[in-house]
């Protein structure tokens, strides 16, 4: 497979290259792509060096699949050009996610929706992916009425500038700010910009994308997204009300048998998910599973995942693996 990685020099792009190699993805030709200022830079993949090329050069090379993580504006401009050249694009930005003509895919949930006609496929937001992977089997079994989610999001979701800001603040030096406020010893209740309704874009991604992936607009969802000074992954406190009652042990068993989910839930052994231990892994970890004693048919959970892997790079590559296995590319 001729594979283009668009945004190859960025944080997610670098993880995509790492995961492609780890999963021994059938890459016959790698095309690292980045903005003009990075053209000519060398990247290494599986011990071999490749020169970064610009966008138009990459379009002209007619990759089979292009894995995009280059921001929404770049995706809006260039994904259609890659698609017109016959390349199937899997995009990590928010540009296409809510487009009614585009599929929003978590392979374990809805890969079967994909057809050969899908030439631009949207990868959901990282905080959405880890939540819906856990919610999907429970929705099927108990029917979700409402979700309340609070997120505790890694600074890697913002990018290199945020990681540098935290390191500067650790060192007590003033540097470029990724956020309006210090992130060291702080928690910032704003991820991305605010919308008219007073929620942030990050919070509304959780609301809108979850409904699209689960194909159910009747689910009521509200979210609060918070940035915290850690790097391992995103954590989420999820409260979910079902139409039907449930048994907590049955919930654990359902999740234990859900592809891509690992249950870590034992108070006696202090077993629960934490981003420090989720970092570098591809699974979504769930624990603190307990009935919400304040409301019937309602459950509390704690969900953690590496936002750069299952939240971005790995999910994207799993979509590409599905396309190949289903002979859609
Ligand atoms: C964030 N999910 O964490 C967003 C974008 N990666 O900032």
Quickly describe the structure:
By secondary structure, the chain is an alpha/beta fold.
Description:
The mean pLDDT is 98. It contains ten helices and 14 strands. Helix 5 packs across helix 10 (309-325). The protein folds into two domains: 2-124 and 312-325, NAD(P)-binding Rossmann-like Domain (Rossmann fold, 3-Layer(aba) Sandwich), CATH 3.40.50; 127-307, Dihydrodipicolinate Reductase, domain 2 (2-Layer Sandwich). It has a six-stranded parallel beta sheet with strand order 2-1-5-6-8-7, with helices on both faces. The protein is α/β, with parallel strands linked by helices and 329 residues long. The chain has helices at 11-22, 55-60, 72-84, 107-110, 126-142, 160-171, 201-213, 248-256, 275-278, 309-325, and strands at 2-6, 29-33, 42-45, 48-51, 65-68, 88-91, 103-104, 120-122, 144-153, 220-227, 234-242, 261-263, 284-291, 298-305. The relative contact order is 0.15. 3-amino-D-alanine (2RA) binds at residues 125-127, 153, 157-158, 191, 202, 307.
Oligomer: single chain
Which topology of the largest domain does CATH recognise? Dihydrodipicolinate Reductase, domain 2
- Structural class, from helix and strand content? alpha/beta
What is the CATH homology-level superfamily of the largest domain? Dihydrodipicolinate Reductase, domain 2
Number of helical regions: 10
How are the secondary structure elements laid out?
Elements: E1 2-6, H1 11-22, E2 29-33, E3 42-45, E4 48-51, H2 55-60, E5 65-68, H3 72-84, E6 88-91, E7 103-104, H4 107-110, E8 120-122, H5 126-142, E9 144-153, H6 160-171, H7 201-213, E10 220-227, E11 234-242, H8 248-256, E12 261-263, H9 275-278, E13 284-291, E14 298-305, H10 309-325
Parallel strand pairs: 1-2, 1-5, 5-6, 6-8, 7-8, 9-10, 12-13
Antiparallel strand pairs: 3-4, 9-11, 11-14, 13-14
Bound molecules: 3-amino-D-alanine (2RA).
3-amino-D-alanine is lined by residues 125-127, 153, 157-158, 191, 202, 307.
């Amino acid at each position: 497979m001729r594979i283009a990685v668009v945004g190859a020099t960025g944080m997610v792009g670098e993880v995509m290259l790492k995961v492609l190699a780890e999963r021994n993805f059938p890459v016959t030709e790698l095309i690292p792509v980045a903005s003009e200022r990075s053209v000519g830079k060398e990247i290494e993949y599986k011990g071999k060096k490749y020169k970064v090329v610009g966008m138009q050069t990459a379009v002209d090379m007619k990759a089979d699949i292009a894995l995009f993580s280059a921001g929404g504006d770049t995706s809006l401009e260039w994904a259609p050009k890659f698609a017109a050249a016959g390349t199937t694009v899997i995009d990590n930005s928010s540009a296409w996610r809510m487009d009614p003509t585009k599929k929003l895919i978590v392979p374990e949930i809805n890969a079967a929706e994909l057809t050969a006609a899908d030439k631009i496929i949207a990868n959901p937001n990282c905080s959405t992916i880890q939540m819906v992977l856990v919610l999907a089997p429970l929705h099927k079994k108990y029917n979700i009425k409402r979700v309340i989610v609070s997120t505790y999001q890694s600074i890697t979701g913002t990018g290199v500038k945020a990681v540098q800001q935290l390191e500067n603040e650790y060192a007590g030096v003033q540097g470029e700010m990724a956020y309006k406020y210090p992130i060291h010893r702080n928690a910032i209740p704003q991820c991305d910009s605010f919308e008219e309704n007073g929620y942030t874009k990050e919070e509304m991604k959780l609301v809108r994308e979850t409904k699209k992936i689960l194909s159910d607009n009747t689910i009521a969802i509200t979210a609060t997204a918070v940035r915290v000074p850690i790097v391992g992954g995103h954590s989420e406190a999820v409260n979910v009300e079902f139409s039907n009652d449930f048994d907590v042990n049955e919930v654990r068993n359902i999740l234990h048998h859900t592809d891509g989910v690992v249950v870590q839930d034992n108070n006696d052994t202090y077993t629960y998910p934490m981003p420090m231990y989720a970092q570098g892994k591809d699974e979504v970890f769930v624990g603190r599973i307990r009935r919400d004693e304040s409301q019937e048919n309602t459950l509390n959970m704690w969900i953690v995942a590496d936002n750069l892997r299952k939240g971005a790079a790995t999910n994207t590559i799993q979509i590409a693996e599905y396309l190949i296995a289903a002979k859609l590319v």
